[in-house]
Design goal:
With 198 residues, this protein is α+β, with helices and mostly antiparallel strands. It contains five helices and seven strands; from the N terminus they run E-E-E-H-H-E-E-H-H-E-E-H.
Length: 198
């Protein structure tokens, strides 16, 4: 469901014939194929191409459920790659207003409970490493009706010198997404599905 208010996205064709969905107008070397009105980039991509964009497999389910929660949308994500020096999984997102941000903070308040994440595994050898950090864009003028931009980081915090941070791994991310989906479906029964869409 994402944002209540829809926005305009463009399907553009690049100089080599590659097609993509963008916010805003086509740039140099791109031509517009068509416009799409959608609540999120993910929804626009699915409407344009009939499928979700390529997402890192570990973070895919989390991105999908975040875009179903009313008042939220994402526009980029990464599951983290230890070899490339990405110590966290990250998702760039926007909240339609402060109420949507408050709903999200309340929904993820369970994350410190190892018991909740461990329950999502059938036979866990040990609880997953997962902490959550939400960075809010302080340049935003709260109360003026504009979306609140945020970065959600999932990893090990604090990252100290003795043991540098590492990505949480696909298993922990999927467990977190599964529990978030369960809680969001209970809070927003018409908007969030209780099961991940295929």
């Amino acid at each position: 469901m994402g944002f209540e208010k829809k926005q305009t996205f463009c399907v553009v064709v690049g100089s080599r014939g590659e097609r993509e969905v963008i916010e805003g107008l086509p740039g140099a070397g791109e031509r517009m194929e068509r416009r799409i009105e959608a609540a999120s980039l993910l929804a626009a991509y699915k409407e344009a191409f009939g499928t979700l964009p390529d997402l890192d497999p570990g973070i895919r389910e989390l991105v999908v459920v975040l875009n179903e929660i009313p008042g939220m949308r994402t526009w980029s994500s990464c599951e983290g790659h230890k070899r490339h020096g990405d110590p966290c999984a990250s998702i760039s997102m926007q909240f339609e207003n402060l109420t949507a941000l408050e709903h999200f903070v309340d929904l993820v308040s369970f994350f410190k409970s190892d018991e909740v994440l461990t329950r999502a595994f059938e036979d866990p050898p040990d609880p997953p490493v997962l902490d959550l950090c939400l960075e809010i864009d302080l340049a935003h003028h709260f109360g003026d009706g504009l979306p609140v931009s945020c970065e959600l980081f999932l990893g090990r915090f604090p990252m100290d010198r003795a043991e540098p941070g590492k990505p949480p791994g696909a298993r922990a991310l999927r467990a977190f997404a599964k529990e978030l989906r369960r809680r969001a479906a209970a809070r927003f029964p018409g908007a969030v599905s209780g099961v991940e869409p295929s």
